[in-house]
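Pilot study result, target chain (101 residues):
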Amino acid sequence: MVIREAYAFGVRWPASRIGSLAELVTEENNGFLFSPNNPDQIAAVVRNAWDDQQGLEKLARGARQSFLTLVHGKTPNFETLMTIYEEAKAERKNRKIQEVC
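Predicted structure:
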């Protein structure tokens, strides 16, 4: 959710090449990737990004486009999340009914 919210505001995202974050961040499109447990590489990525203001603007546009694609594409993840919320609400309601009985 954090990456999705960042993309909504055109914030490019630095992410480690580990787990699901690397699936949401695409270098040269919407963010930066770095190897985990490599502080020198993280510093280099941030330094290079800071030095390339035009590149940062391009990534900001890419981040915003990524958000629009995720939201307006009505991804299965969004629908799954909404189903989970509805099931949780129903379960809570059923517990309250059982407690009263």
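One observation from the pilot: The chain has one domain: 2-73. A full batch analysis is planned for the follow-on phase.
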